[in-house]
Each structure stands twice: as structure tokens, then as C-alpha cells.
Design goal:
alpha/beta, Isopropylmalate Dehydrogenase, 2 domains, binds nicotinamide-adenine-dinucleotide, binds 3-isopropylmalic acid, binds manganese (II) ion
């Protein structure tokens, strides 16, 4: 359906194309039943682009991404490209997009569906009702800091080095996103770093504190070292609301948080840039999981994280909150009805029905039909 919404779809590698196929069904349903259409372009990224174009993302694709209203991204990487030159690894395609689109705020919600309390690695009473939002800084820190590389040092030893680096504006802009979001939630922000051992941690804590005092003193702010938070997330995750942190800690803590919800295959994310003069912000939506080489091509992948990433896109890029709610409710109901991909079949599985990727996608669309 023609529309003025420009969407770039980049399925990528491994299970990326498999889970994206299921989202296509939801996109088609939304177009037909709710007149939510997109002008869709589709392209290669990651290993798929490397195989065809000898680069993990072409300049052309990057340009289309920069011009799109939103990018829906699958996942990249896999053992096939383990020996690729570091500068051409599939993951570099995603990192280039994050950097060039200046997607500094990565929203990674972790919510526990009631139907899945038994799928969590933690006791039901610890996770029931959990709803936290991790905001990960996405365009700086050790992922991009210079200098980085490897060489032979003066002693003749090979050494490798990365640089953790943050500027004050980089810290402030992502903390501002956290405070703003907290105001629409439980009004609590936890900022996490390692100010006890890292200069960047000290600066991070200072700036979070200053910004809070200047503009957000109505929000409750606390600080914790990232190692302690890794522990507290397993001890009492419901104590948290919004968590804001740097690029690397955010990567690790969000994978940890996924297991509170039951599976890495459930967690979506939104990567947002700063709003321009018209309020439009560049955006990319992707599950937090990777290409899952161990199950790729077998029809086993859980399409829910990708589906919920599409719902986040409706909400954050197109102001279609009601439609996003509907997709989320359809997912919730399908889980309530007992549909489970293999990753969710842990703990008490009484009353569940094992399904593959496509059956899960079909069940979600069928539930949308029922809800409409
Ligand atoms: P992974 O997230 O791909 O997989 C970790 C584990 O979780 C695997 O056992 C996998 O089977 C399982 N899993 C992940 N998603 C699932 C889903 N939707 N349904 C069911 N099970 C799921 O992490 P990894 O194995 O460390 O990395 C594999 C490749 O993916 C690497 O090349 C890595 O760099 C890349 N990666 C890419 C992204 C991305 O594109 N955004 C994110 C993370 C990792
Ligand atoms: C993620 C991934 C990426 C990251 C990789 C694939 C570059 O793990 O999105 O969580 O480390 O940021
Ligand atoms: Mn990750």
C-alpha cells in the first residue's frame, strides 16, 4: 500500500530473515485491516551484504537508511564470517548504521508476560509483573573510542587496545532520554557505571547528577556500580524502573535482563536519534538477540522479539501507540493460549503447545484478527 511512511527492512543473517518473514505477515495485516501502509525498501546487511558486495553495508544502503523514516533490522553475523577481516565483519554494518544515523539512545524494555513467569530462570515471585527499561548509550564508549587496534609493542609483544571515551554532551543527552522516559513510567532512574575504577564512570556519575539537579529533580535518581547492578538485577529486579548506562554495560546487562523475562528471543529494542526541527528522529528497530547460528535455518527461532520491535516502531516513529498496543496484546494472548517456541519451553510447561517460527507468526496474526 502506498503511504508517506518510508521503511527500510534489513533482515540480515541467520535467523534474521526467518523472524522478519513473520513480521511481514503482521505488516501486511496492518496494511489490509488498519490501513497502516509503508513504502518498503529492502536490502542486504551483514554477512549477506559482505558476500554480495564485499562490504557489510554499502554506501547506497546507508544512504537509504539515513533517509528512511525508520529501519527495521533483523540480525547480523555468524561463523561463516569468523575469518572476515575485522573492518568488514558483518557486525560492522550495524555499527556503521548506529554511528552514521547517530542513534545514541537504545531503549531495551524487559517485561515479563504473566504467561511466562515459569519460563524465567528466576522464581516466579521475583519476576512476576517485572517491567524495566534499559537505556543503553549506543554511539560512543569503548565501541567507538579511538585509538583502537593492535600492534607489536616496544617489548616485541603483540597487544590490542580499545578506548573507553565519553564526552559531557554524549552523557547528558542519553541521561536526558532516561529522565524523560521515567516521567512517563514510575519516575525512577538508576544510572550505572564503574566510577570506582574508570574516569568515564566518574564523569558519567557527575553529569547524571548535574543534569538531574538542573532539570529533572522531580525524578528519583540513584547510582550503582555496574557489577553490583548485575547482581541486584538477579536478586530483586522489580526494584528498578529506568536504567541508564554506557554502550558496553548496556549490551551486557540487557542480555542478562532478557533471562528475567524467559528468553533472549523476546526482547525488542528501539535505537533513536535526536529529534530534528520538525520533531522527526532517525530510528532503527531491532531485537536485542543475534543471528542465533545454532538454530538458524531450522524454523525454530522465536519471532516475538522482532515482532515487538515492529510494535516499538509503530509507537516511537509513527505515533501509532494504539496499534502498537494491539500487536503487544496479540503476542501476550498467544503466549497465554500456550503457544511456545523451543526457547520458551523451560520450567513448568503444562498446557503449552510447541510451535515453530512460522506457526508462532501465524498465531499472532490470527490473534490480531480476533482482536480486530
Ligand atoms: P545470539 O543472540 O545470536 O544467540 C544466543 C543464544 O540465544 C543462542 O543459543 C540462540 O539460539 C538463542 N536465541 C537468540 N535469539 C533467539 C530467538 N529469536 N529464538 C530462539 N532462540 C534465540 O548470540 P551469539 O550466539 O552470541 O551471536 C551470534 C552472532 O550474532 C554473532 O555473530 C554476534 O556478533 C551476532 N549478534 C548480532 C546482533 C545483532 O545483529 N543485533 C546481536 C547480538 C549478536
Ligand atoms: C547487540 C549486539 C551488537 C552489540 C553487536 C552485534 C554489534 O550484541 O545489539 O546487542 O554488541 O551492540
Ligand atoms: Mn548484545
Amino acid at each position: 500500500m502506498a503511504s508517506n511512511r518510508n521503511l527500510l527492512v534489513l533482515p540480515g543473517d541467520g535467523i534474521g530473515p526467518e523472524v522478519m518473514n513473520e513480521v511481514r505477515k503482521v505488516i501486511a495485516w496492518m496494511g489490509k485491516k488498519r490501513a497502516i501502509g509503508f513504502d518498503i525498501k529492502e536490502d542486504l546487511v551483514g554477512g549477506a551484504a559482505l558476500d554480495k558486495h564485499n562490504t557489510p553495508i554499502t554506501d547506497d544502503t546507508t544512504k537509504i537508511a539515513l533517509e528512511a523514516d525508520a529501519v527495521l533490522f533483523g540480525s547480523v553475523g555468524g561463523p561463516k564470517w569468523d575469518t572476515a577481516d575485522f573492518s568488514k565483519k558483518p557486525e560492522r554494518g550495524l555499527l556503521r548504521l548506529r554511528k552514521e544515523m547517530d542513534l545514541f539512545a537504545n531503549l531495551r524494555p524487559a517485561k515479563v508476560f504473566d504467561a511466562l513467569v515459569d519460563a524465567s530462570s528466576l522464581k516466579p515471585e521475583i519476576v512476576k509483573g517485572l517491567d524495566i527499561m534499559i537505556i543503553r548509550e549506543l554511539t560512543s564508549g569503548v565501541y567507538f573510542g579511538e585509538p583502537r587496534g593492535r600492534h607489536t609493542n616496544a617489548k616485541g609483544e603483540v597487544e590490542a587496545f580499545d578506548t573507553q571515551r565519553y564526552t559531557v554532551p554524549e552523557i547528558r543527552r542519553v541521561c536526558a532520554v532516561a529522565f524523560e522516559l521515567a516521567r512517563k513510567r514510575k519516575n525512577k532512574v538508576l544510572s550505572t557505571e564503574k566510577a570506582n575504577v574508570m574516569y568515564t564512570g566518574v564523569l558519567w556519575r557527575e553529569e547524571a547528577t548535574k543534569l538531574h539537579k538542573e532539570s529533572y529533580s522531580d525524578v528519583q535518581l540513584s547510582h550503582m556500580y555496574a557489577d553490583a547492578l548485575a547482581m541486584q538485577l538477579l536478586r530483586a529486579p522489580k526494584e528498578f524502573d529506568v536504567i541508564v548506562t554506557d554502550n558496553l554495560f548496556g549490551d551486557i546487562l540487557s542480555d542478562e535482563a532478557s533471562m528475567l523475562t524467559g528468553s533472549l528471543g523476546l526482547l525488542p529494542s528501539a535505537s533513536l536519534g535526536a529529534p530534528d526541527a520538525t520533531g522527526r528522529r532517525k530510528a532503527l528497530y531491532e531485537p536485542i538477540h543475534g543471528s542465533a547460528p545454532d538454530i538458524a535455518g531450522k524454523g525454530l527461532a522465536n519471532p516475538i522479539a522482532q515482532t515487538l520491535s515492529y510494535a516499538m516502531m509503530l509507537r516511537y516513529s509513527f505515533d501509532l501507540g494504539k496499534d502498537a498496543d494491539m500487536v503487544e496484546l496479540a503476542v501476550e494472548n498467544v503466549l497465554k493460549a500456550g503457544y511456545r517456541t523451543g526457547d520458551l519451553l523451560v520450567g513448568n510447561t503444562a498446557g503449552t503447545k510447541k510451535v515453530g517460527t512460522q506457526e508462532m507468526g501465524d498465531a499472532i496474526v490470527k490473534e490480531l484478527d480476533r482482536l480486530a
